[in-house]
From TrEMBL:
Gene3D superfamilies: Jelly Rolls. Keywords: Signal. The lineage of its organism: Bacteria, Pseudomonadati, Pseudomonadota, Betaproteobacteria, Burkholderiales. The keyword Signal applies. This is Uncharacterized protein. It holds the Pfam family DMSP_lyase. The keyword Ion transport does not apply.
Amino acid sequence: MSKRILSCLIGSALVSVHAFAADFKCQDDVVPAKHTPEEQKLVDQFWNESLTYLGQFLKTIETPTGQCKDSAQATVQTYSSQTGKAQTRCVLKYRDVELMAKHLRAILAEPEKAKACFDTQKSYKEFPLYTPSEQTRNLSATAKWLNRPLLTDFYKKMGGEVGKAGLELNENFVAVTSRTDTSVHWAKDVSINGLPTLWSSVGWIPFYAENKAAGSERFRGGYLYAEVMGPWGNLRIKEIDGETVGAEVGMTAQLFNTTYPFHYHHPQEMYATLTKPQCIDQNKYMVMHWDSDQFRQKRGDKGWTVEIDGSNGRWKKWFANTDSNKEWLTYFERNAIHAFHALEGCNQTIENSGLVSVWVRSSAMDNEQSTRPCQPAPGAGTVRDMGPGTKTVCNLRDWKP
């Protein structure tokens, strides 16, 4: 054997040993649980589907699309004044995404080590976690064992327009989340159709139900998210080889005939659309940099005030259609202004629409994590009237390095 071949083999072995010798540190609130053999089988199913979800996301962003040779191509602005078109970038060129991918590879390389940081959150104390409906719970034995409270009961008790919208989404949760197509960009089906235990067992959060500043009552009741991995999810890893793990991976569901109004946050974020729309313009979204010349900016003591005027149809050039095939992946840089609009389009009913996505943040452990909805400009109406054509003000806070 030549010295060159031997050197390559040794080099490969060293790389392999290093890749499979990561040091995992769980978050402090991860407490080992004792399970019966029967319960452990349920936990294992939950873990295995979570691992599939994480692995498929990693594989998807590593698979070349568009003009990218070694990465998926993501939309970073739906409208750029310089070109009059969308702006895209190879998503793995971002350092935060590159680091997140590195940590996901470590998890997939040593799943048994990572599993020590996995918590079903059956007895989670930080905040309530829910299962959308009895029908959802019945999708898996694990969900039945976890026996989380139902969001249908939550929204019945809440009542009003928020409660009505919440019931509409959660009573039909399985139908809404099943209307997906993962055949183009995913090697395995990561939707509720392919991973029913994960989608029914993960803890769902009615994020805006009680936030009166977050938009219309229908949107507040018609939006849910869940976190599989991250500081408040099932897989809570604090560090890998001494590096802070910022990956936060989950999913979202938004009811049709709603607008998630303009909003922003410090952490970078990604969305991969799973929903197969009935018609091309059924679901729309926008993302633009906060300092775009389409907006007006004013410096304050602790940040920037950004004024957005989408009136007289100006908003329409900012928004793009989103689907599970062509316009499927987007990346939001820090403090990017973004929104999701599911109002226009074809004849929508609960049976044929909704907007379901894989949702990811890459830096969930630094700076302020809060998502901050923009607010109506003076004289522009109330929060319930907020839409793409409303004059809106976003008060961005400085990012602290």
